[in-house]
Amino acid sequence: MKILFFQWHSFMNQGIERALKKLHIEYDTYFYQFTDWEKDEIFLEKFEEHLKKNSCQSVLSVNFSPLISKICKMQGIPYISWIYDSPIHIRDLSSMKNSCNRIYVFDRGQAEEYQKSGIDAGYMPLAVDTELFGNRTAGAKGAFGAEISFVGALYRTKYQAYAAFLSEYQRGYLEGIINSQMKIYGGYLIPELITEELLEKVNEDYSRKSKDEFLMGKRELEFMLACEATGRERYLALSLLSGHYPVDLYSPEPDERLKGVNYKGYADYYNEMPVIFADSKVNLNISLKTIRSGIPLRVLDIMGCGGFVLSNFQEELLEYFAPGEECAVYESLEDLYWKADYYLKHEEERNRIAAAGFEKVKRNFTFEERLREMLMQKK
């Protein structure tokens, strides 16, 4: 069986390719970077032609492409996609119901939501290539050394600009949703709190006071509020910790309010990130609120680089890893501070936990095992 592995500028490409080779699966690659994932006539024509010429029996991609699904449906071949984003990056989900699809989602809670809407989505945790990252970190100890590091976006949203057009009551209601979500670890409340009545009133307020005709959709409002809650939590966490310890931030966007944080700029995924994770005493994971239960890729990458991870509570994290033995988990900002403080002062325990986490992902979170499950399953 020959597979066409569709690639774009995503994470996991190298890990998947290396696993395909180890499993002796014949494959071809096709690279294309979408500017619009849902409308691209040039891509449709070229990709369909490539599939026909190369006689591939199935297509594999990281994340789901409606355009690839359309072509696979027309040609009658399976389309296997492994989603690592939350939420998915497309507006129209109807193509996810195509019969050719075999969709796998890293977040069990998100997979269950898709299933409720009639999408045949399976659950598949993410993976890490410890050998690949090991080649990057070998001999590089000390290059990015830090007490505490965070690699990720700060999610500075347009929420404040948008909310300025709303009534005081509607702004207060949205603030209540954001604050409630910030206090909850291991649960995603926002979709349940955004009713059709609320959405209608918010859009009425906005259209009455603004000069444009923009209407906020339910998914768009959910995502904006989730990003705002995440951004606030990340800001508060970094601000709190940097008041007591050196904190390095690797992000494509700075935040001028974080005076005490050492802003290091963007970190390349394959070259710089592994060394940062391996060299930092404490690596933070502060999950995007839309991740209902799943283990973010950042957590597995930290462990796969031999780093110590201090993460917010995620249901699946505790299913697969023992807190205090293979990772550390905080349940509030106060708890985050005390655990960061504790593990910075207990090097031997911290190193033991990092080593145990590395061994766990090396055994149980391999790309080979994940691909074997996805590619060998029959619908």
Write the layout of secondary structure elements.
Layout lengths: L2 E5 L5 H10 L4 E5 L9 H14 L3 E5 L3 H10 L3 E5 L17 E5 L2 H9 L4 E3 L6 H8 L8 E6 L7 H5 L4 H16 L6 H4 L2 H14 L8 H25 L4 E4 L11 E4 L7 H7 E6 L11 H8 L4 E4 L2 H6 L7 E3 L2 H13 L1 H18 L2 H10 L3
Parallel strand pairs: 1-2, 1-3, 3-4, 4-5, 5-6, 7-8, 7-10, 8-9, 10-11, 11-12
Helix pairs in contact: 7-10, 10-14
Characterise this structure:
It contains 16 helices and twelve strands. The chain has helices at residues 13-22, 41-54, 66-75, 108-116, 130-137, 159-163, 168-183, 190-193, 196-209, 218-242, 273-279, 297-304, 315-320, 333-345, 347-364, 367-376; strands at residues 3-7, 27-31, 58-62, 79-83, 101-105, 121-123, 146-151, 247-250, 262-265, 280-285, 309-312, 328-330. The strands form two sheets. Strands 2-1-3-4-5-6 form a six-stranded parallel sheet, with helices on both faces. Strands 9-8-7-10-11-12 form a six-stranded parallel sheet, with helices on both faces. The two termini are 16 Å apart. The mean pLDDT is 94.
Sum this structure up briefly.
47% of the residues lie in helices and 15% in strands.
Largest sheet: spatial strand order? 2-1-3-4-5-6
Q: Let me know the average pLDDT.
A: 94
Helix content: 40-55%
- Based on DSSP secondary structure assignment, what is the total number of beta strands? 12
Strand content: 5-15%
Segments where pLDDT lies below 50 for 5+ residues? Answer: none
Quick one: overall form? globular
Most strands sheet: 6 strands, parallel
